[in-house]
Amino acid sequence: MFSVIKAASLLLCVISVCRGRSLCISSYYQAGNECCPKCSPGEYVRADCSDESSTQCNPCDDGTFNDGYSRLKRCLNCTSCAPDSGLRIARPCTRTLDAVCEPLEGFFCIKSKGLYCETAEKHRQCKPGQYIRDNGTALTDTVCTDCSAGTFSDGTFTTCRPHTQCENLLREGTALADAECGEGVSSINVTVVIVVVLLVVFLCTGISAALYFRKKKCLSGKCVTVPTQGEENIMIQPPV
């Protein structure tokens, strides 16, 4: 009876090997006729085990990792978080863990693997005549909406702004730009003009009055003429 069971077990083993199935437990791997211990996370197999020695393992080189027990003959390359792909490092690569990437500021993820981003794209820029309805995030793009009549945006506003109401309109507002107003006559300018005019009037009046009284004084006999060079002084006497 025992011989029959042993023969059946041997036959089962032969069938398993022929089908390529390993007879080793999960923490070991098959190398030839040997079941060799797998290398730990952060290591790779430098040499398989033999009858005389166990598996020889080496630490992963810089820029590579191994996150589990394995029979790998070299560690895996770390993921590159390339800026030209819109990515930056969220978690650096170690010997036991791969790097984790996230979108750069102003970018959002368009291709992910699990919770990790593989490729990102720059947020769209709203055009003049549109406002930013929803700001972009690391997972979603910016959402733009057209301005309604009577409002405008240069593309950077979070709401459209109403056109300025002008007293002196030079150019009507559009969805892209505000209305353009001309310079009206302000009350300050009017006041300045009035003050200047009054000063001129007072000055002219003062000069006219001075000339008038001077002439009147001469006619009353009290005028003295100052001679020019080479002339005698002449006093004008009043008539008897």
UniProtKB/TrEMBL annotation:
<feature type="disulfide bond">
    <location>
        <begin position="39"/>
        <end position="57"/>
    </location>
</feature>
<dbReference type="GO" id="GO:0050829">
    <property type="term" value="P:defense response to Gram-negative bacterium"/>
</dbReference>
<dbReference type="GO" id="GO:0046642">
    <property type="term" value="P:negative regulation of alpha-beta T cell proliferation"/>
</dbReference>
<feature type="domain" description="TNFR-Cys">
    <location>
        <begin position="59"/>
        <end position="101"/>
    </location>
</feature>
<dbReference type="GO" id="GO:0009897">
    <property type="term" value="C:external side of plasma membrane"/>
</dbReference>
<dbReference type="GO" id="GO:2000406">
    <property type="term" value="P:positive regulation of T cell migration"/>
</dbReference>
<protein>
    <submittedName>
        <fullName>Tumor necrosis factor receptor superfamily member 14-like isoform X1</fullName>
    </submittedName>
</protein>
<keyword id="KW-0472">Membrane</keyword>
<feature type="repeat" description="TNFR-Cys">
    <location>
        <begin position="59"/>
        <end position="101"/>
    </location>
</feature>
<feature type="signal peptide">
    <location>
        <begin position="1"/>
        <end position="20"/>
    </location>
</feature>
<keyword id="KW-1133">Transmembrane helix</keyword>
<dbReference type="Pfam" id="PF00020">
    <property type="entry name" value="TNFR_c6"/>
</dbReference>
<feature type="transmembrane region" description="Helical">
    <location>
        <begin position="190"/>
        <end position="213"/>
    </location>
</feature>
<keyword id="KW-0732">Signal</keyword>
<dbReference type="GO" id="GO:0050830">
    <property type="term" value="P:defense response to Gram-positive bacterium"/>
</dbReference>
<keyword id="KW-1015">Disulfide bond</keyword>
<keyword id="KW-0675">Receptor</keyword>
<feature type="disulfide bond">
    <location>
        <begin position="60"/>
        <end position="75"/>
    </location>
</feature>
<keyword id="KW-0812">Transmembrane</keyword>
<dbReference type="GO" id="GO:0002720">
    <property type="term" value="P:positive regulation of cytokine production involved in immune response"/>
</dbReference>
<dbReference type="InterPro" id="IPR001368">
    <property type="entry name" value="TNFR/NGFR_Cys_rich_reg"/>
</dbReference>
<feature type="domain" description="TNFR-Cys">
    <location>
        <begin position="23"/>
        <end position="57"/>
    </location>
</feature>
<feature type="disulfide bond">
    <location>
        <begin position="36"/>
        <end position="49"/>
    </location>
</feature>
<feature type="repeat" description="TNFR-Cys">
    <location>
        <begin position="23"/>
        <end position="57"/>
    </location>
</feature>
